[in-house]
Amino acid sequence: MTANGSRLRAALPLGFVVRRLAGTVGMLFVLSVAVFALLQAAPGDPAQTLLGPRSATPEALAAVRARFHLDSPLAMQYWYWLSDAARFDLGTSIRTGESVAAAIGSRLVLTGQLVGLGFAVALLLGLPLGVLAGLRNRRGTDRAVQSLGVVALSTPAFAGGLLLIYVFALMLGWFPAYGPGEGSGTDRLMHLVLPALALGLAVTAVLLKLTRAAVIRELDREHVTFARARGVRERDILLRYVLRGTLVPVLTGIGLVLAYLLAGTVMVEQVFALPGLGSLLVDSVTFRDIPVVQAEALLIAALVCLAGLVTDLSQPLLDPRLRTASAAKAAAGSAAAVSPGRPADVREEEGR
C-alpha cells in the first residue's frame, strides 16, 4: 500500500465513510417519500391530469389508472415510481410527450453552466472580502464590507437581475439582456454573465460572513499569538495558520451555497429567459406535469445531498485536528467497551 493510500485511509476510516454514505442514502429516501407524498396530496385527480385536455371517459380514465398503477395502494405506487427512477426511467412528460430524462438532460448543461459561474462569482467575491473584513475587524473597512454584504443578502435574485439588465444591458449595452446565446463558446458566456452575477451576489454575503467569523476566531488562537511572539511575519501567519484554520467552516458554507444556487436558478432563469431546469420546473408546475416535477425535485434533492456528502468527506482531509479527534473518540469508545464495569468518569479520563 502506498503512503498516499495509507494517509487517505487514516483520514477517512471505512466506518466513517460508510456512516456518511448510509446517512445520505437515508436522507434521499426520506426526500423521495416527501416529494411523492406532496404531489399525491395535490388537489385534482392524477388520472385526469395524466390524460390531459382529452375527453375523460370512464374507459380512458380506467386505462390511464391501470397504465400508471394509480389503482394500486400508495405504497405500491411509490415503489413502482422509485424502482423506475433507479433505472433512470423517469416516465414521459404530459405536456410535451417526450421522455422526462431527455427533457432534463437537454437543459441540465445550461443550468450547470449557470450554477458554475454563479459559484465562481460567490467564491471570488465572498472569500477575499471575508478575509479582508476579518483582518480589519471593527474598523471602517470591516463595516463597509459588511454593509455591502447585507445589501447583497437582502436583495432578491430576481430584483438584482432586473437591476443588472437595466444598467449593463439597456444603459451600457455591455451584455445581452436575455436568452442563452448560440453555441457554448464566447456568445454563451456573454449571455450568462449577468445571470451568474445575479445568482452569485445573492449568496456572496453568506460566504463573506462565514469567512470573516472564521478569520477572527483563528486570529485569537494561542498558536497564532505564539507565532507572533516568535517574530513570524504576518503574511506567513495569515497563509500558514489563519487561512488553513478557516478551511473547514468555509467548506461547510460552500456546501450550503451550492444548495442555495441550485434552488435560486428558478427565479434567475425566469428573469433572463434561460431554458434551463428552473424554467422547466416552473412550466411543469403550471401545467401539472407530474412526472417532470417529481423527477426534477428528486434530482435537485440528490445534488444537494451529494454536495453535503462531499463536504463531510473533505473535512478530515483538510483539517488534521478532525482526524485526531475522531481517533481519540474511537479509542475512548473501544476502552469503554473493553472495560464496561469501570466508572464512567474513569473511562472518560482514560479516553482523554
Structure notes:
- It is a multi-pass membrane protein.
- Its main location: membrane.
- The protein has 352 residues and is mostly helical.
- The chain has a domain of 216 residues: MetI-like fold (Orthogonal Bundle), CATH 1.10.3720.
- The longest helix is centred in the middle third of the chain and has 36 residues.
- The protein starts with a helix and ends with a helix.
- The relative contact order is 0.12.
- The C terminus is likely disordered.
Supply database-style keywords.
single chain, mainly alpha, 352 residues, 78% helix, MetI-like fold
- Secondary structure class reads mainly alpha
Average residue-wise pLDDT: 78
Poorly predicted regions are 330-352
CATH superfamily of the domain at 105-320: MetI-like
Keywords: Cell membrane, Membrane, Transmembrane, Transmembrane helix, Transport
Protein name: ABC transporter permease
Region (Disordered): 333-352
Domain ABC transmembrane type-1: 108-311
